[in-house]
Design brief:
Helix content is 45%, strand content 29%. It is α+β, with helices and mostly antiparallel strands. α2 (14-36) packs antiparallel against α3 (42-72).
């Protein structure tokens, strides 16, 4: 059974990439501010610590969400129905059938060497949530 990699989730999944990037940026800014500031403002300290922690927790939540589908979901074949990118991010939509019912779903992704190779009509292997069949992830984007 394939398992998603945290680095691949962060690199390919737009939400995880954005929250991780924002968390690191604000954490580095907070450290720089602590080292260079002569006066520490309590509310700003909470901002510099609280928001990065929340961002990293969201990344962890997203990873665990994807991992849960990989661990408990079912694998199926689908077909890419739409690929769109704009300014480094985009969406890959696909259609698939589970239990005789047809679904349309998609992943919001970063524009990477891997994601730019998807084309409409390409076959994809999907991991589908058994409880919410509308939720599916492209297996090869998230697992090594």
């Amino acid at each position: 059974m394939p398992t998603p990699s945290l680095t691949r989730v962060i690199w390919n999944d737009f939400s995880a990439f954005l929250s991780t990037g924002m968390g690191f940026f604000l954490l580095l800014f907070g450290i720089w501010d602590l080292l260079t500031s002569t006066r520490i403002v309590q509310s700003f300290l909470w901002f510099n610590i609280g928001i990065p922690v929340a961002a990293f927790l969201f990344t962890l939540y997203r990873f665990l969400q994807i991992r849960g589908v990989f661990m408990d979901g079912q694998s199926t074949q689908g077909e890419v129905s739409e690929v769109r990118f704009f300014r480094g991010r985009g969406i890959i939509r696909y259609v698939y059938t589970i239990n005789g019912e047809k679904y349309l779903s998609g992943n919001r992704v970063q524009l990477t060497r891997e994601t730019r190779n998807y084309r409409v009509g390409d076959p994809v292997t999907l991991m589908v949530d058994r409880n919410q069949p509308k939720r599916a992830f492209i297996r090869d984007l998230y697992s090594p």
